[in-house]
Amino acid sequence: MCGSTPAAENMSAAENPEPGLTDWQPSASPDLLRARARLLEQIRAFFAERGILEVETPLLAQAGVTDPQVQLFQSAGRYLQTSPEYAMKRLLASGSGPIYQVCKAFRREPGARLHNPEFSMLEWYRPAFDSRQLIREVEDLLDKLLPPRPVTRYSYRQLFMEYADIDPFSADLTQLSERLLAEVELDFEPVDRDTWLNLLLTHLIEPELAEMGVVFVYDYPATQAALARLRRAGEQRVAERFEVYVDGLELANGYAELTNPQEQAARLEREQEQLDGQGEQRDIDHRLLQALEFGLPDCAGVALGLDRLLMVISGAKHIRDVLAFDWERA
What we know:
This protein is α+β, with helices and mostly antiparallel strands. 35% of the residues lie in helices and 22% in strands.
């Protein structure tokens, strides 16, 4: 497509502007604005060929996610959505069939090299697909959008065993902490197992993926299921969840979707209890639960960060360079 070209080298029209003089200018170059337009054209053509319906759902909703790790924007009793997932599942339950959406999403977190509080997302759902079928479709999409790259698949356990020399399912907290602290200095003390695992992943493992092209990681611990189904894998219960890395950059997160309304309600209530313990109140999205009660078809879904994908395509090093106006200029 547009490869690593002068567009990537001339990414910012006015980097580090002096306030009031040049910060009116876009943060992305005209070449990258055109690259984004081409990317959207190719994505829409891909889904049109497969008969997947493009939909649009509200950005403002009466309920937001209850995940304590996700900080929300709220105004006048409405939440800016962090993902179109809940609304799209309501469409699936109503009989929409396979659907996709290109939209904005919002998370109240600091801007950084790979993060902008307002970002673009591609999300799609495939009734009658399992996670492995959806992995193949994600691979097909990336094959259309990117120059050829090697593709590797690892289970979560295989990845940790090969690149961190530790079993993420059997190691205790002491073993996890000692493995990380042998190579990384922390200025805080994680208290739960999943935080230690996430730190091992980001600090020790993800840097190893930078030269590996496209990497799919699947069968996450059951405690990291989010909205995914659980299944038995040997002696372990695992989440039918996968993540996608391209050139070491985390790009997408997908699931075989949980369809059981009672289990979904229990998970949301546990998250709500954690929020209550942090002094924050968020309502559960009861319309999502009503949709599951009515009947969400067996399906798999995935969310892919479009801004990060454009970074990979263009060779941009900072997310602001692929945005018309980043957070500081908006």
